[in-house]
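PROTEIN DATA CARD
Card holder: Deacylase
Chain length: 157
Origin: Cupriavidus oxalaticus
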Amino acid sequence: MTMANTLAKCLSTRHSQFDTVRHPYSLSSMATAHAAHIPGDRLAKTVLLEDDSGYVAAVIPSTHHLKLAEIREQTGRNLSLAHEDGVREVFRDCDHGAIPPVAMAYGTQTWLDDSLLAHADVYFEAGDHQELVHMSTDQFMELMADAKRGHFAHRMM
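Structure generated from the sequence above:
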């Protein structure tokens, strides 16, 4: 599989400047960072949440844990981790577990953790388990302009 069509269209529409990084097949965000030889705190991990009102995507560094209580407080919603069926429903053109952070392009409210913006560049899944999108943090912030921002992730020990 190559880059997800929805992501490719979003990057094109927003005139994003980026390159792609191929890496050996990997199933977890930490394994992806290792396989791609990139720092894990620069790899965005997208976690899909849900409640009775629908879905919310939380975008955090792969080296961090999502603090569910904190995102619940910041969103004012009783969110929990989405079921696999929900992930497949929202991110139809992506492999399971390889979802890009631009959930807005998939019609889903998105929250971005500020700790992801601490470095000069960002990497994120392109929709499969073998390719990452790489761009400057400035480009990433432009791409994620419609996302709400907050602090709801903490570094793993």
